[in-house]
Specification:
It is a single chain. The protein has 25 helices and 24 strands. The chain is α/β, with parallel strands linked by helices. It is globular. The relative contact order is 0.10.
Length: 772
Amino acid sequence: MSGPPGPSVPPGSGRRLAQLAELPVTVLRGVGSRWAGELAALGIESVLDLITHYPRRHVDATNLVSPARLQVGQPAALLATVRSVRRPPVRGGRGRRVPARVELVVGDGDGAVRVVFFNQTWRAHQLPAGTTALFFGKPTAYQGQLQLVNPTVEVVQLAGDGTGGTDGTADDDGSGVDGSGDSGSGDSGSGDSGEDAGRPSGRIYAVYPLSEASRLTSVQISRFVGEALDRAGDFADPLDAGWRQRVGVVGRTEAFGGIHRPHRMAEREPARRRLAFDELFRLQLALVLRQARLAADARGIRHVVTRPDGTPTLVDRFIDGLPFDLTAGQRRAVDQILADLAGPLPMHRLLQGDVGAGKTVVAVATLLCAVEGGHQGAFMAPTEVLAEQHRLGIEALLDGLSVPDPSTLAGARPVSVELLTARTGAAARRRIRDGLAGGGVDLVIGTHALLTDDVRFASLGAVVIDEQHRFGVEQRAALRSKGRGADGAGHDPDLLVMTATPIPRTAAMVVFGDLDMTVVDDRPPGRTPVTTEWARTPGAAASAWERVRHEVAAGHRAFVVCPLVEGSDRVEATAATDESARLASTELAGLRVGLLHGQLPATEKEAVMATFRAGQLDVLVATTVVEVGVDVPEATVMVIEDADRFGIAQLHQLRGRVGRGSDPSWCYLLSEVDTPEVAERLGAMERTTDGFELADVDLRLRGAGTILGARQKGRSDLRLADLLGDRDLVESAREVATAMIGPAGTLDAHPLLADELRLFLDEEEAEFLFKS
């Protein structure tokens, strides 16, 4: 797509979403307080909520099979009415467990079939005689008869509800229609009954998300939505015909019709794509506006990246003094960052890279650029263990590096690095606070303790935040505001955000769309790939423990990770405390086994890690406190117990604790659980060590919600957009948002968009983005 094709549709040419947001669902015929309450339980209170409650699938009525035409082994969908319900008594003998079952006979005008549910006794209440439902399953033969066993069920019409279209006179307020009491009219279907009642009125049937407790059916929601769309008429469209053609999407009116009541199955995907684009577009508008607002308010620092006399800068001396050469990816990242730091606006950059890609070196170079000009740097980590690890690693990297200091005889002093966490003692905290406020501390590494009001900087020049997914936008803003100081007279520090594991590009554009992006896509030489095995059997687990003993005998070390700190009756997982004691007396008897978890006092955690690093422990049994940043090159084996309880990002992070030296390394995933989702997750870990590939698998398995986290609030959740399948829409949404906001950095020229965007923002964000 090239430049903007023209202004958006002027206000007033169609129904605005903002208008529908102000209309309660009770304006619809048949929605009195009873059904309004049922809808509210689904998060539907306004007409806008209703029309954005999208079907989760569609069923083509022309493909429905009558019970009389079912064939063994052929998956089928049938629309039928429950004729009888039976719960046979459970008769077990001689210690045999017999599953409880519910037996139905369901039929239509052409025939009937038996449906059996095992261990789903609640189906008897869900599907009483007279209920019409869609049944999806694969018929089997039993005692010469066809049956469906544990099919998927979608209730169409409840027994005794007529057509289930209204609650008018049956409701306690009796008002029914816009307060007029005309509840029996409209399309409620006054006289239908029997096995044809509640059938889809057209060829395509929309199946909506419902709660088990609700008495609502998909047919009822379809009717409510249908009336809402009929009465709304044409929708105002923020995309004119030119933009729609460039992006390749249909109009908004056509999209709402195509998603809720398509005439053909082929209409669904164009409708979904348009509504998915709208979701992504609103997110990108907010992010581009945020960028523009930050730039408009910015007071940046032009950092010193080269010296007029050509002598090496602090960053030059740091890189030249490293015992290794930077990779091409690291060099490219440093160059991009230095270009930002030399500019007039504060940097807001995301640094992506796989586990072990050497992001910390890039981060230190960023902080040293600030120190070069007489400013300070802050490095914020999510946990104390990681903050301590970074302190040790950064001090080692900076060994021998000095900064000018006229107050000393030599005229220089070593770069000053301090650690500040919630566990820092009172005396040390006062000393560090004074050093930060007076300028004597160059770099501070810490946790959330850096955000407290009593921490002030003489001149905060650059901030690095490690593990962004554990920090929200608010924490970022709080740390950035420390650069301006209590009187607000200072400058905005430059900001570098690092992710521990890669995020797919499209997801990063949504989550971190207000940041520029840099990717370190190579690994330092000398790192060996880690061999990963999923140990699904006791024999395979025994081989893992044998590997641990073998590696320890060769002078190496091992991690064992468990999901819990202490035992729980509710969660059947191995507790680290119990497991360390068990291993020390069984599989790993004779080895020096240590224990590390988040509930240990800080001094004890530091002591355990120091002991392990020094080689005085052979095996460290830990919880996920070792997930990120812990760097022990001598560790060559990682055993993860109950691996099915961890997500892909966590597993990949944990695996990254080994393979950090030149010796071959192994990661064993212990789990006998082999559900399809677990098999895909652990199978992916076995198949690849590429964090970017794993990020795509993770996004496909978990969806966008968990990745987007707190960035999305209220209606801004992605309901139809697929961040993997809709990559082109993410890119297009960004391009259109940038074009419409334009150089002015506002939506003043697009009032329809501005009104719509406000609906999807919380109050504080809207106030920030739209303040004059």
